[in-house]
Amino acid sequence: MAAKPKKPTHEAFVVTGEGESAFWTKIGAVWPHQDGKGYNIDLTAMPISGPLVIRERKEPEKS
To answer: How does the average pLDDT of the chain come out, rounded?
Structure first.
C-alpha cells in the first residue's frame, strides 16, 4: 500500500447550532484510499452531539 499524501484532501468538523449561528469545530482530517473506494479519517476528538461533516479542504488564503 502506498503512503497517504502528506496533506489531507478533506477536513472533518462537528457542527452545533443552525444557519448563520452554527459553530463549526474542526476535529480531524480525511485522506482518500488509493483505489478511490473509501477514506481514512483521523479524528482528534469524538463528537458527542451534532452532525459529523466532511468538507473538501481549502488552502489558507495568503495575505
So the answer is: 89
Domain count, the chain: 1
Could you tell me if residue 62 is inside a domain?
no
Q: Please give the residue that has the higher pLDDT: either 19 or 62.
A: 19
Residue 2 forms part of a structural domain: no
Range of the domain at 33: 10-56
DSSP code of residue 34: T
DSSP codes joined into one string, 5-26: PSS-SEEEEEEES-GGG-EEEE
pTM: 0.79
